Amino acid sequence: MPQALEGLKVLDFTQLLQGPYATQMLGDLGADVIKIEKPGSGDIYRKLTFFNEWIGGDESLCFLPCNRNKRSLALDLKSPEAADVIQRLAREADIVVENFRPGVMDRLGYGYEALHKLNPRLIYCSATGWGPDGPYRDRPGQDLLVQGLAGVVMASGQRSHGPVAVGTALSDQLGALHIVYSVLAALYYREKTGHGQRIEVNLLQSVLAYCMQDFFTVHNGGRSFERPDSGIAHPGNGAPFGIYRTADGYLSIAMNPWPKVVEALGEPDLLRYDDQQVLFDQRDEVFHAIEAVTVTRTTAEWLDIMLALDLWVAPVNEQKDVADDPQVRHLHAFREIEHPKAGRLRVTDIPFRMSETPGDIRRPPPLIGEHSREILEECGLSPEQIDALYEKGTVTTEALTPSPSQP
C-alpha cells in the first residue's frame, strides 16, 4: 500500500533524541530520510547507552530505538568537498531538520538562508533546547535541564522527598512531536502556495505547552501547586487519584465517585471523607486509609472488584511486563525487526492506524554511512567522484566485514 509521506526527501542533521525521533516518525510514514553523520563516530547517541550495555558489539540501546527507516550518509561537513554534496541534496529535498546549537549550521554554510536560495520550496526546521535567541541561547539544552527549569520536576514526587524527574526523556519526545506537527503543517501550506518556510522548535516551549492545564491554573486561578506527601499522582488533585500498593504490586486509581470507591473497598466508615474539599485537604490521610485496605488483596483481585463497579482503575506494570499485557498484545504495539549487527530486535511499532496509507518499518537503524555510496549515486556523482571522496575521508562507510573492494 502507498504511504502518506512517500516521495518526500528529508535531510536529517540531527543527533541524540529530539531530532532523530522526529525524523524517524517521518520515515515511518514513508519519507526517505537521509541521516547525515560524522565519519567514524556518527550520531553522538551511538556512543551513549543505558547500563553501559551494547548490542551486537557496539550498537547503542539509546541510538537504535529512534533511527529506523533512515539511510546514513557519513559526510565530513567541514570539508570543502561536502558543500557540493549538501547543495545537491538540498536542491532535491523537501525537509531539513537540524538540532545543532544556534548558529552552527549558518557557520557551516548550510543554514536556512543558504539552502532556501537553492530551493525555495524547502521546509527547514531548527530544533534547539532553549530557542534560537535570548539569554539562554548558547547554553546547552538537555531533557533533564528543561524539566527542571519548566517546573515539571517540582510537580512530581512527594513533598518530604523533594522533586522528581519524569522517568523518561519527556522534553525530547515532546519536542519531537512539535517538530513533526509543525513540519506537516508547513507541508500543507506548501501544497497550497508552493512556498517553503523556516520552523524553529525548542524543548522549553514544548514542555511548557504540555503543561498547559497546570500553568493555566497557576496564572488564572491564583494558586500554585504543592506536592502531596503521599502517592497522590498530581499536586492539583485530591484523593483517591494515585498509585496504591497491593498485596503483590501496585494499582492506579483515577478520578472516581467516592461512594463507589468505598463500596469497592468494603469499608463504609470511609464515607466520612465524602466531600470534595475534604478529599483534597486531607488527601494524604485518605491515601493512607485507602492503601491500608488495598494491601490486603492482589492487584488482579482489586481489578475484578473495581472494574465490576466501572471504576477507573488499571494495573501498574513493570516495564519488562508491559509487552505481555493483553491490550498491548492485541494492539501489536511491539514488533520485531532484524538489524545487521544487533540481530533480532523488539521495537515499539507505529502508534496509530491509517486505513489508506499505513506506516511501516522498512529499514532497521543504519550503520554509520551504510548508504553513503547509493545516496551519492542518486545525487548524480560519478563513480570516480565518489571514490575520490572516500579516498579523502570526506565520506565513509562502516562495513560489517571489510574486504579489499570496500572503499
TrEMBL record:
The keyword Transferase applies. It comes from the Bacteria. This is CoA transferase. One of its GO terms (molecular function) is CoA-transferase activity. Pfam families: CoA_transf_3. Keywords: Transferase.
